[in-house]
UniProtKB/TrEMBL annotation:
One of its GO terms (molecular function) is creatininase activity. It holds the Pfam family Creatininase. The keyword GTP-binding does not apply. The keyword Lipoprotein does not apply. It comes from the Bacteria. This is Creatinine amidohydrolase. Belongs to the creatininase superfamily.
Length: 253
């Protein structure tokens, strides 16, 4: 069942939510995703996935409105990207956490659809917990790389395009899709986007003029629907674990 926290009158929050309630905040972005996907790609995924997960979960989940404007300055070269700096986003999510802490709920979950937010939210989890005592968690939309992407399908590629084709097909222009994969980086064992021992700084047009990092030409709605279903199932299982997670054995909420 989808429960929107903002549908409650203010006084009802104190009597409806309990310490077992989970407040979930979808976090997306408004950013360039190449010529074939909408600026709202990450926002659509964060909002739609969190709604479906909440609807399928047996937990007492309450959704906040999605946070649209986040740290997506790696795409600030591209017209249409609307972003806020890391200081602004950090302050925003911490202050949201402090607001949630005034409700009876003791658990705050960020459901994130944009990779550029991950490191910042991970820092915020500890800061919110330290300040408020809330149990804080981060869940991320799962978008695996496609077979033709050499592990680099991280932005506007096969997975994201397939998912948006399944969720909002009218917003996808596959005729404008092109393969933009930095194949020359596949030879590196240590310096990688993910899984290597060395990380590196980058902006999205470092790898090509389109700002895409991946191969959307192989995308299809059927695979997108399967990816959505798998992410929802994974999210439901994650919420079940979150609900029973305690930092110490036998610990209180």
């Amino acid at each position: 069942m989808i429960r929107l926290l903002t549908d409650l009158p203010g006084p009802a929050v104190a009597t409806t939510l309990t310490p077992e309630s989970i407040v979930m905040l979808p976090v997306g972005s408004i950013e360039h995703h190449g010529p074939h996907l909408p600026l709202s790609t990450d926002l659509i995924m964060a909002d739609e996935f969190s709604r479906r997960i909440a609807d399928a979960s047996d937990q007492d989940v309450w959704l906040l409105p999605p946070l649209a404007f986040t740290k997506s300055d790696e795409h600030d070269w591209a017209v249409g990207t609307v972003w806020i700096g890391w200081e602004t986003l950090m302050r925003t999510v911490i202050e949201i956490g402090e607001s949630v802490a005034k409700t009876p709920a003791r658990t705050l979950v960020f459901f994130n659809g944009h990779g550029g937010n991950i490191a910042l939210i991970q820092v915020a989890l500890r800061e919110i917990r330290r300040r408020t005592g809330l149990r804080t968690f981060l869940m991320n939309a799962s978008v695996p790389a496609g077979d033709t992407e050499a592990g680099f399908g991280i932005h506007g590629g096969h997975g994201e395009t397939s998912i948006i084709m399944a969720l909002r097909p009218e917003l996808v222009s596959l005729d404008d899709a092109e393969r933009w994969v930095p194949d020359h980086l596949a030879e590196f064992d240590q310096v990688k986007f993910n899984g290597g021992s060395v990380s590196f700084g980058w902006v999205s047009n470092d790898f090509g003029a389109s700002g895409v990092v991946g191969d959307p030409t192989t995308a299809n709605a059927a695979e997108g629907a399967a990816l959505v279903a798998a992410s929802v199932a994974k999210g439901v299982a994650a919420l079940e674990e979150i609900a029973r997670f305690r930092h110490a054995p036998g610990g209180e909420l």
